[in-house]
């Protein structure tokens, strides 16, 4: 008799994986979650205190940063990246993350690897006060190579309708505060892997493979606290496309321009190293975050409050530029 296992799908390994995953998911659940893993769907009630609640959603993955996880046999941090890419995006509109769903696909399921991936997702959810209420693990023999996985996520947050941040109140003269990244984050890794061919190479006393696996920083907690203190007019998560593509996304008035001073902060060594491999400075700024993972637009009078709030969470920030009006140019890097 031919079985599903003969076709490459190990049901028993799937059961083992679910058993390991449940422990990590349980750590993330808020009082608003109405059921646990194992049902056909996850359920969560809308928290009280919202007059006109709006749900804000985002989905993303980790990209080819996963290849470095495969090559270094370290799987327990890329789940943080998956959460960060989603929750930092919805945060840009003032939304507090409510829940998260993940999707993992592989050619051959190893329960310990899939549970490590979900451990990272759980850690990311805890860092963003977000409940992991469900997900899917798909074993797809013949579609993915053995030993390779893909992971994607989906986040939903909530914000009152009259508190949505959409950039409509941004004015000339408002300043841009850049909050430091933890490193390369989760974008540009196809180029990174072209430039870095030996993951065991020393980089400031550590293997460069470990440095490149540093998880994407999650900005949720300090930014949500900041929103209760100051009038935040716009925010941008600096992902693929760098400053050039992401900062203008905070503007609703397309005549606005972000003027950014490249000398306003020290670019981290990892980016200088990558650039030394033959990438032009312009291309670096149009590909990587260059040390700034999140940008906040405020009135200049609120600068001190922003710095104090970020420092409370050990997040360093810098005044990196300002907004003006200039037809035909979205970002000016000086």
What does this structure look like?
- 31% of the residues lie in helices and 24% in strands.
- With 334 residues, it is α+β, with helices and mostly antiparallel strands.
- The chain has a 6-stranded mixed beta sheet with strand order 8-10-5-11-9-12. A 4-stranded mixed beta sheet has the order 1-4-2-3, with helices on one face. The chain has a two-stranded antiparallel sheet with strand order 6-7.
- Strand 2, helix 4 and strand 3 (131-139) form a beta-alpha-beta unit.
- Helix 1 (11-26) runs parallel beside helix 4 (111-127) and helix 3 (78-91) runs parallel beside helix 4 (111-127).
- The model has no long low-confidence stretch (mean pLDDT 94).
- One of its GO terms (biological process) is 'de novo' IMP biosynthetic process.
Which key terms come to mind for this protein?
334 residues; alpha+beta; 60s Ribosomal Protein L30, Chain: A; Phosphoribosyl-aminoimidazole Synthetase, Chain A, domain 2; 6-stranded mixed sheet; 4-stranded mixed sheet; 12 strands; 31% helix
Short description:
It catalyses: 2-formamido-N(1)-(5-O-phospho-beta-D-ribosyl)acetamidine + ATP = 5-amino-1-(5-phospho-beta-D-ribosyl)imidazole + ADP + phosphate + H(+). The protein is α+β, with helices and mostly antiparallel strands.
* Residue share in helix: 25-40%
Q: Give me the strand/helix succession.
A: HEHHEHEEEHEEHHEHEHHEHEE
Number of strands: 12
The major pleated sheet works out as: 6 strands, mixed
């Amino acid at each position: 008799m031919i079985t599903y296992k003969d076709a490459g799908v190990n049901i028993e390994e799937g059961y083992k994986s679910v058993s390991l995953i449940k422990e990590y998911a349980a750590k993330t659940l808020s009082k608003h979650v109405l059921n646990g893993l194992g049902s056909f769907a996850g359920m969560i009630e809308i928290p009280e205190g919202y007059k006109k609640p709006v749900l804000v959603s985002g989905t993303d993955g980790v990209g080819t940063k996963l290849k470095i996880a495969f090559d270094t046999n370290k799987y327990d941090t890329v789940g943080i990246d998956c959460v960060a890419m989603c929750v930092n995006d919805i945060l840009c509109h003032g939304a507090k993350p409510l829940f998260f769903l993940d999707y993992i696909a592989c050619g051959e399921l190893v329960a310990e690897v899939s549970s490590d991936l979900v451990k990272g997702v759980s850690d990311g959810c805890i860092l963003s006060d977000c409940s992991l209420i469900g997900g899917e693990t798909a074993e797809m023999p013949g579609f993915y190579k053995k030993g390779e996985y893909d992971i994607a996520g989906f986040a939903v947050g909530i914000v009152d309708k009259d508190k949505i941040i959409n950039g409509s109140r941004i004015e000339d003269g408002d300043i841009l505060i850049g909050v430091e990244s933890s490193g390369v984050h989760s974008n540009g890794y196809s180029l990174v892997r072209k430039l870095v061919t030996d993951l065991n190479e020393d980089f400031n006393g550590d293997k460069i493979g470990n440095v490149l696996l540093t998880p994407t920083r999650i900005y949720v907690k300090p930014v949500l606290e900041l929103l209760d203190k100051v009038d935040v007019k716009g925010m941008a998560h600096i992902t693929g496309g760098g400053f050039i593509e992401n900062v203008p996304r905070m503007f609703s008035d397309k005549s606005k321009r972000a003027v950014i001073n490249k000398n306003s902060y020290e670019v981290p060594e990892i980016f200088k190293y990558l650039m030394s491999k033959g990438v032009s400075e312009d291309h670096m700024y149009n590909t990587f975050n260059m040390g700034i993972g999140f940008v906040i637009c405020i009135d200049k009078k609120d600068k001190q409050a922003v710095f104090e709030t970020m420092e409370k969470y050990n997040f360093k920030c810098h005044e990196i530029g300002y907004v003006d009006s200039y037809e035909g140019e979205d970002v000016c890097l000086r």
